[in-house]
Structures are given as structure tokens and as C-alpha cells.
Structure prediction request, 294 residues.
Amino acid sequence: MFAQFRLTTTLAAGALALGLSSVAQGQTTTDVTVLDGNGNVIANNVRSFDENESGSGLAVGFTGQQGSTFTFLYQANVLGFVDANGTAIPPMTGLNSSFASGGYEYTVVARIEETVTSVNTVNGITTVTFEATGGSASIFFDNAASGGAKSVTSTGVGFDDGHLVGTFNIVEGTGVSNFTTFPNGSGIGSTLYDFVVSGAVDSNYIAGLSGPINDLHFTSNQNLPVGTSRTTSFHNGVSDAGDLYPTTPATGLLLKVDGSNTFTTAIPEPETYALMLAGLGALGFMTRRRRRQP
Prediction:
């Protein structure tokens, strides 16, 4: 095993030297198994997490001027799980029920840095587009044994506590986000961003992720007025000053956000396979040549 590991390491180093680490990659969707951390299956063959349509979003420091920057915060509990056909998967009993009666929950939170890329106003209707420049999203599992509080939309408590299942860093410059406001003060928008797994996802909670990169594909619809998504704070309840999602009062552009996360795996595109084979062939030639030398 040790010799095999050394050979694998050598090939990987050679691939990096040939520039194979930066080749183009495509994506394929991935089905996962969702568990409770104790071996109990919550749902099988899950393609997407369906988040609460009353999820909350907050644009902190938003000015609506081209080139300006702001921070977008998000928090929501997961309402259910969806398969590859878009059909809801009945979860294990207890999803979003009281922790005291054996309930549990999954929550998703995010903090995204964005830049306004364009502003267009016609007849009092303004459409603003954004680009992500940084940030992360995290998935949490919580129940009575996990040490957190059940999430409450109105106060923002309980969304970023419990057990951290995985954190995903946003892929800068990918996707698109826009928001349109109307003269009556209402608004509607949409978001499509990609996140790359940071570190590792706990397979005791989400199993089946595979490939060199595990991607979290996030889409959402955003609305004004905020309605049932109104909250007084975001990521409330974690006092650690170094926390990735510090508590933030809900002052700024508050939005109603209906989000969904789809798991995908990055895979090499056809031309990448050819390049990899050529590179590995060259490595094999160099290895054989080295062995023949006295």
C-alpha cells in the first residue's frame, strides 16, 4: 500500500506540473442520502434541498449604484427533499417538529459578498444585476442532542447552530443575480450561484457526494414585500466573535427568499480526458526512461 501511495502521489505531482489542475470541468447532478448522524436515513436519492419559501434575505449596505458593493445574508430551514424527477421525498418523521418531542431540522445559512454590475431604469422600473465576489454557505443539522435551538424566522435564532454538516465557498464570478423594483415599492428577483465544498461534508449526515469537487448549486426567488419572512436579526444565537456568520440586526433591504440547493459534482470535459491521458502517458514514459538510466 505504501508503494502504491507513493506512485499515486508522483502521478498527481506530475499532473500538476503539466497544468492539469486548471483544465475545464463540467458538472453532473449528484443524488445523496440524508441522515440524522446516528445512522437513521432521513431521505434517500435526494437531488435537492427545498428550503422554506419564507426564508429571509438581507442586503447590507446596498445602494443600487453600479460598482458598489454589499453583503447579502440568508437563512432558512429546509422544508423537504426532492428527487431527480422533482418529486418530493417523504422524510423521516419529525422534520421541523419540536425538539422536545423528537423533532429535528436542517437549516441553510449564507453570507455572500456582491458587486453591482449594472443598473437600468425605464418608466420607474429599475433592474439591478449583481456578481458574487466571495462568501460562503453552510448546512446545519439540529435536534435535542445537537446543542442548538430550533430556528425561528421572526427572531433569526437557531439557524446557524447545532451540528455543522458542511461549509461551501462561493465560486467567484459564476452565476447571476438580479432584482427589479416597481413604482409601488414591490420587487422581484432571482439568484443562481455555485459553491465549492470547503474542507469536508460530514458523511454521517450527507452521504454520496463524490468526485474531485462537490458543488452546491443555489437558486432562489426574492420578493418584496417581505411578508412572513420578516425577522429582527440574522444568524442570531452564536456569540463567538470569530464565527463565520456573526449576528446581524435586520437593518437594510430585507427580502423574502425561496431557495433551493442542488448537489452537483464537477467532472472533466471530454477534451480534459484526452489531456489527462496524454499527460499520464508522458509521465509513464518519463518513469520508464528514468528506470533504464544507470
